[in-house]
Amino acid sequence: MVKLLEAVGRWVIAFLEFWGRWFLLSAKAVTLAFKPPLRLKRFIYYLATIGSDSIPVIAVTSLFTGGVIALETYNAFHRFNAEFMIGAVVAISMARELSPVLSALLVTARSGSAMAAEIGTMRVTEQIDALEMMAVNPIKFLITPRIYATTISLVFLTVIADIIGYIGGYLVSVHIFGVNKTLYLRYTQNFAHMEDVFHGLIKAAVFGFLLSTISCLYGYYTRGGAKGVGESTTKAVVSSSIAILIFDYLITYLLRLFNL
């Protein structure tokens, strides 16, 4: 019993320590963005590497995701002669849930791991210490532009995922199953609304902030040489993915609670 209590106590302390560090690091990174120098070039660079370079993988994933939704729902809707409703299902599913979550998980795997590995390598090779010696704030220089670039990029990537996912569902429904395209588009317009898109964009912004801050946090506090960098990268991806799924539920619950 004593050992169990000790294990629980250590877990609670580690949990509180992690979120305490996360809050302090996030607060510093967000507020430092408004202090000169602004370093817009670094922000634009991360917009390109995190946002633009992620478009191909987001596009392919969203196209087939929309197609899979259409494939899975066709048999059920066909029994009631309601195949034209597939478009609304694809649009709402992609906008509210699948586009922000899948985009966030893909960016976590692609860019979140890179953030943790790069910053972690700089930590163990004492490059961050060198920045501090040169009076350069490492949080502002390394973390702030990544956080803002990731948050903004994920919002736009989610919009792209919405569009391409719907195209995937349209191609499968209309060109494979022969659904009437006029009814398909009309019922999509009737049942899918802009608030569905806004819900997804709210989630995307929160997910972008979470995955970037958690990934940078693990990289910034890396210890133990090359092995420590690998461990930090793994923990960053796992923790970010879990946080995305947990906050996905919380945001959905709050939006429904307040009827937003």
From TrEMBL:
Domain of life, per lineage: Bacteria
Q: How does it sit in the membrane?
A: Multi-pass membrane protein
Stated family: Belongs to the MlaE permease family.
Name listed for the protein in its UniProt record = ABC transporter permease
InterPro entries the record matches: ABC_MlaE_roteobac (IPR003453), Permease_MalE (IPR030802)
Q: Which GO terms describe its molecular function?
A: phospholipid transporter activity
Entry keyword Transmembrane: yes
Q: Where in the cell is it found?
A: Membrane
Membrane-spanning regions, if any? 12-31, 43-64, 147-177, 197-221, 233-255
Organism equals Thermovibrio ammonificans (strain DSM 15698 / JCM 12110 / HB-1)
A GO cellular component term found in this entry reads: ATP-binding cassette (ABC) transporter complex
Q: Name the keywords, alphabetized.
A: Membrane, Transmembrane, Transmembrane helix, Transport
Look up the coiled coil feature and give its residue ranges: none
